[in-house]
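Input/output pair, single chain:
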Amino acid sequence: MPKKIVVAHCSPRAGGNSSMLADEFIRGAEEAGNEVVRMDVGRADIHGCKACEYCFTHEGACVQQDDMQTFYPDLQDADVLVYATPMYCYNMPAQMRAFEDRMFCQVGKPFTITQTALLLCFEDKDITTADAAIGTFRQGAQFCKREILGEVIVNNVYAKGAIAGNPGLEEAYRLGLSIS
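Output:
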């Protein structure tokens, strides 16, 4: 049965390495017959959660009126949430963190997301420098009771387009293709 997949691209750099990973994942997921919605979270105007708990008493609605409002409808009925992101300073970028924090409103109106995946790329040659970022992703998935469908981790890429020809692109495609 086809799924609705949201791909949250968390980099502010258009057409960069994480964007290329997202594109390949999306190509595979669409070929598998899924509906895919790409959210360019990294370039969106998303403010941090205010912890005001407005969403608790207003059926998941957020008091803030920013670009997150355009993302909520697709998040409400998504089956899978995929993060396509670079790693900044050994962790997830601020843009991704703001997006995740604003999904706190699901306490007031739960999302249907039951599965997740990670597409991560970064500059460092030592792949273990991503352990903290990957751990953060896994902990969040566990807390939200989301099954992890896969992780594509690509290191040693920084310059825009440096990921071209990297086996990680094929891996991202195959991960997308495997979801049905």
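The mean pLDDT is 95. The longest strand covers residues 147-154.
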